[in-house]
Amino acid sequence: MAASGIVILVGPTGAGKTTLARWMHDEGPRCGSPFVAISAMELVESMAYDQLFGHVPGAYTGAVGRGHGVFERARSGTALFDEFHLLPTSVQALLLRALSTGVYLPLGGERDVPILCRVIICTRDCPDEMMERGDLLPDLRYRLGYCIVTVSGLADQRDVIAAFAQTFLESCREVTGVTGPCAFSPDVMPALEAAPWPGNLRELRGVVEAAYLHAVGDTMVRFDHLPPHVRIAPRFKPHGDPSENARVVEWALWRTGNRIDRAAALIGAHRNTISKYLADREARAGDERGPAHIPAEGNVRGDPSLS
Description:
Blueprint: E1 6-10, H1 17-26, E2 35-39, H2 48-53, H3 70-74, E3 78-82, H4 89-101, E4 103-104, E5 113-114, E6 118-123, H5 127-132, H6 138-144, E7 148-150, H7 161-176, H8 188-194, H9 200-214, H10 242-255, H11 260-267, H12 271-285
Parallel strand pairs: 1-6, 1-7, 2-3, 3-6
Antiparallel strand pairs: 4-5
Helix pairs in contact: 4-6, 7-9, 8-11, 10-11, 11-12
């Protein structure tokens, strides 16, 4: 196996690296062969050689049959190494020869076995950064090659949140075994798109599934069905304190990237209220930035202090 045959997926925890790896397998020429995934946390240091490369009968006391390692089980399919940034250097050393030559020797064996599968590595950190801080053996780093795909977290690609949320919602019936709604009410998506999502896609899936179960019996998943840590939008009060309402509007604009309609939906205000607030804010700013320009649905470049 040449290093160029290895694909490295880099991204934060929960960003969907494993899902992408599975998609690459299912949509590629290896789709009819096994997809075998193993996490770095599953590789026990004292047993790692056997877990990776297997063993022959009689290799050690109790080894009465053939043990099949990751590469053999994957055959001509895909072997996925997840959480690679947690792999101890002692286990990394076991991979040096296999990933360099494309062959391995089962424990107790006498003949090398070729690696036929594609190798995909999922890691939270860039391999070069891992090497620089001593978490990745230099010899292994160069064997991994440079076919690196960056998988961004949800905070960096908020425009995909709606599509993923809808996909997760449509799978909820099969996942939960409960029949519920298959659509979101208009007040849900602004909250989902504004949330920080430190757990990325994994957290979004959990939030959607929880909201789905709360919404059973309703026609749509509504804002009130969301878990508390997502359902945190303050409400605009038409006859409330002006300074408090101003803070609420500023919060909504910040949360929605200055999208007028979404900000209004998020806090329960009319879009004209948001438009008037922005116009007043621009007027107070004077001539420094020029007259306000408020598109019907596009982004508005708000106060730089909000960025």
